[in-house]
Design a protein that fits this description.
Layout: H1 6-12, H2 19-28, H3 31-36, H4 50-53, E1 56-59, E2 64-67, H5 68-73, H6 92-102, E3 117-118, E4 127-128, H7 130-135, E5 139-140, E6 148-149, E7 167-169, E8 176-178, E9 185-187, E10 195-197, H8 198-212, H9 222-230, E11 281-283, E12 291-293, H10 309-318, H11 329-332, H12 337-341, H13 357-363, H14 365-368, H15 383-390, H16 393-421, E13 429-435, H17 439-448, E14 457-463, H18 476-490, E15 495-496, E16 502-503, H19 507-511, H20 514-527, H21 538-546, H22 561-571, H23 576-585, H24 587-592, H25 604-618, H26 622-632, H27 637-643, H28 645-652, H29 661-667, E17 669-672, H30 678-699, H31 708-716, E18 731-735, E19 741-743, E20 748-752, H32 757-776
Parallel strand pairs: 13-14, 17-18, 18-20
Antiparallel strand pairs: 1-2, 3-4, 5-6, 7-8, 9-10, 11-12, 15-16, 19-20
Helix pairs in contact: 16-28, 18-20, 20-26, 22-25, 27-28, 29-30, 31-32
Length: 777
């Protein structure tokens, strides 16, 4: 007879799962576990089955052994410590008290003492151990208050009479499952014919974690998880098991670093790569599997695009690669603006986004209505642009005026919503120490510190590595901090695109949970007086508001030049043979994107283009999007966005309009003392604002020119009006002082009383220009 020792049993546990493991332990008994494994203090059992009772841990220093689920579901204990304190955040003293409390209660199932779990149903006094409750088919809800229901009061799913007569297939194990109202059978809330074994669902939830656990039929996540939690399925807050495997995706993180041109000029070899020099290796923008030193291909800048010989041959066969299109981006930018704007973008030229100056010129009625267009204007233009051609300048200006008015109304609505959310902010203050030379890391450290709470007031202390003694804790520093932080986010690797951005796929950022932190920072910034964002693409905003499954991306959302060129080659194929040839050439790319489909007619290209767009713009970044959405839920911002999408799009997708004299005049309320002529002071103030607006238009910057943004910055510490507005409201006071004073703590401009307008103007410009210059230095 073979006697198994504890090591044998441990090794066998990796071979038998679920029912096989139970069968094995019944056949061999528990005598070996009894010797090696101490019993759980709460349930008294020695079983070590993480799928049923949670992870079992022994703490020798405390002489303590517990099952995770036994601890989590006990009725008289709360997680009062941090995650790294005690046992899973439960303090040792609290655990001892709970054990003593449970020792007085008898289990209604096994009749033994130590029943730490009670049914939450009113007037029900049943108590039981966790393993006994599982055996008796009780329901344990691993959410909110971690409620437990006995076998009589447990929640049940409603089945129709017709459903209960049929049998179906479990979509996880593919075995038959009876459609009966049983504890062991669960029905999907989002799919009519999706049925599961409870045991299969629990195994899947433990493996997938909260980010990947969803309906196996329709991929619904929110509704499905909510119902499964209600029915007692434990969904751990962790990443999926396949994501936690060390170095599982290491090969994908390696970039190609080799010079493949016929004659390499680098003396240190083809594998030598020195960033920010002429020996930096540039990869092919189409395939990424070939490279060249900048000097070896006569490229002056890394910004220039480059294709390998193989990719050029593909373009040549498709007929879209002419000598005119082989110009580099740098060269094309030197050509005449009107001619270049109306050309189809070449494979080397990144597509201009809708927010770029070129795009604005393209849509300008003055340009579109000219009769002497260049030959390239005969190219087919999108229908939206053709419509613009037929509009008169008067009609276009009128529409633009109405659009600006509508945006102002939406921003006023957003301001009221954000002010409502700001009521959550309390008087407790959290100070963030921000290094001006490393905004992102210092902000991340501050947001992750233990005492940080989004509901606390925020105070910013600026420091510098060069001069740590020089600090800035004024109220305007908070505006400056959020402006710098949002600017960094816009240009970070978390987003991709030119002027309008979509989320990118950065595996390292995903691993470090940076997408969540970015969403959280944006939400906190909006509530605490940060600036408008204005760089979100419509597709990204709609994914956040309506859900990615309800969004149809466009070609403009593709930031990768190579992918965009592939889509164009498919989209503009004018015959079935050319379409099939293009699909054949792009076979590997389409297979990797899971977009391969049989092409039997020319119209199939539309579905193929749609599949590629959905994969590249949405499916590829679904994990960053989910993490980013969770961060945006901070302080209820995402919920309000979903309730008022049109209003919030004005600050997420549109840049704030340029300041005008009228805007500043409306923003600042004039206060005067009794001995001051209010009319004369107000006249000088409004006259000065108009002068600054006119001067800024003609002088195009320069250190000597004061702008409206400078005036706002001087008085409030912010060069733009935050979506939430200013608190307190900005004011102007006319006082008997020599020079203007900007009181940023009160958002107040204290202006001197002068006899003439020229004196007023000179004092304003002298003070504002020198104050801001000193701050910049």
């Amino acid at each position: 007879m073979v006697i198994l020792n504890a090591l044998d049993v441990f090794n066998m546990s990796f071979l038998f799962h679920g029912r096989q493991l139970e069968k094995f332990t019944r056949m061999n008994g528990n005598r070996h576990f009894d010797v090696q494994s101490p019993p759980c203090l709460l349930c008294g059992r020695t079983d070590d089955c993480p799928e049923k009772y949670g992870e079992k841990r022994t703490y020798v220093e405390y002489n303590l052994t517990v099952h995770y689920y036994c601890l989590l579901m006990s009725s008289g204990i709360w997680q009062r410590g941090e995650e790294d304190e005690g046992v899973y955040g439960f303090l040792i003293t609290d655990i001892r008290k709970e054990v003593n409390r449970a020792a007085k209660l008898k289990c209604n199932i096994c009749k033994k003492k130590g029943a730490s779990i009670g049914c939450v149903a009113p007037k029900c006094k049943r108590s039981y151990h966790f393993p006994c409750g599982v055996q008796k088919e009780c329901i344990f809800q691993f959410m909110e208050d971690f409620r437990s229901y006995c076998w009589e009061h447990k929640p049940v799913q409603k089945f129709s009479v017709k459903e209960s007569r049929e049998s179906s297939q479990c979509t996880i194990c593919l075995d038959l499952v009876e459609q009966l109202p049983l504890y062991s059978v669960l029905k999907s809330p989002c799919c009519k014919n999706a049925w599961f074994h409870r045991e299969c669902l629990q195994y899947q939830a433990l493996s997938a974690g909260v980010f990947f656990f969803r309906c196996t039929v329709c991929n619904n996540k929110n509704k499905f998880q909510k119902e499964m939690l209600r029915m007692g399925i434990h969904i751990p807050e962790k990443d999926a098991s396949w994501e936690l495997e060390e170095n599982a995706y290491q090969d994908l993180l390696q970039c190609y670093q080799h010079c493949d041109v016929r004659r390499c000029l680098c003396k240190k070899g083809r594998d030598y790569n020195e960033p920010d020099s002429k020996w930096e290796i540039k990869r092919c923008q189409c395939c990424g599997s070939r490279g060249t030193h900048l000097a070896c291909s006569s490229m002056k800048s890394w910004e220039q695009n480059w294709e390998c010989v193989e990719c050029r041959s593909i373009f040549a066969k498709s007929g879209n690669y002419s000598k005119q299109q082989k110009r580099s981006l740098a060269a094309s930018e030197k050509t005449d603006g009107t001619t270049c704007l109306l050309e189809e973008p070449s494979p080397k030229c990144p597509r201009q986004s809708s927010g770029s100056p070129h795009s604005f010129l393209l849509q300008s009625p003055k340009i579109m209505c000219q009769s002497n267009l260049t030959p390239c204007s005969r190219l087919e233009l999108p229908s939206s642009n053709r419509m613009t051609m037929s509009l008169s300048p008067l009609m276009s200006n009128r529409n633009w005026s109405l659009r600006k008015k509508h945006l102002r109304q939406q921003r006023r609505e957003v301001s009221n919503i954000l002010k409502e959310l700001k009521l959550q902010i309390n008087t407790k203050t959290t100070r963030l120490n921000i290094n001006t030379e490393n905004i992102w890391n210092s902000a991340l450290k501050g947001f992750r510190q233990r005492n940080f709470s989004p509901t606390n007031a925020i105070e910013i202390k600026f420091t510098s590595c060069k001069n740590r003694l020089k600090t800035d804790t004024s109220d305007g520093s908070k505006h400056r901090f959020f402006q710098l932080l949002m600017l960094h986010l816009q240009n970070s690797s978390l987003f991709e695109g030119s002027s309008v951005k979509n989320l990118s796929l950065d595996s390292q950022a995903l691993k470090e949970n940076l997408y969540f932190e970015a969403g959280k920072m944006i939400a906190v910034s909006l509530i605490h007086g940060g600036p408008s964002l204005g760089f979100f693409s419509k597709t990204l905003f709609n994914c956040l508001v309506y859900g990615p499954e309800n969004v149809k991306p466009a070609l403009e959302d593709v930031a990768d030049v190579g992918v965009a060129q592939t889509i164009k080659m498919i989209k503009y194929s004018n015959s079935l043979s050319s379409l099939q040839s293009t699909v054949h050439d792009c076979y590997e790319f389409l297979a990797a994107a899971e977009c391969l489909r049989p092409v039997t007619a020319l119209c199939d290209k539309n579905m193929l283009v749609n599949d590629i767009l959905i994969h590249h713009v949405i499916k590829r970044i679904i994990l960053p999007l989910e993490s980013f959405s969770q961060g945006l839920k901070t302080l209820g911002v995402l919920e309000k966005m979903q309730m008022h999408p049109d209003a919030f799009s004005s600050i997420f997708c549109h840049k704030p309009e340029r300041l005008s004299a009228e805007t500043l005049c409306d923003l600042f309320t004039i206060h005067c003392s009794s001995d001051v002529n209010k009319a004369e002071g107000a006249d000088f103030w409004m006259h000065y604002l108009q002068d600054v607006e006119i001067t800024a238009k003609f002088e195009q910057g320069g250190e000597s020119v004061v702008t409206l943004e400078d005036i706002l910055l001087f008085g409030t510490g912010s060069f733009s009006i935050p979506p939430i507005g200013f608190d307190p409201e900005p004011t102007v006071k006319f006082l008997h002082i020599r020079y203007p004073v900007g009181n940023r703590l009160l958002n107040c401009l204290e202006l001197p009383i002068t006899k003439t307008y020229e004196q007023f103007k000179n004092k304003m410009e002298f003070t504002i220009r020198n104050t801001l210059r000193g701050e910049r230095e």
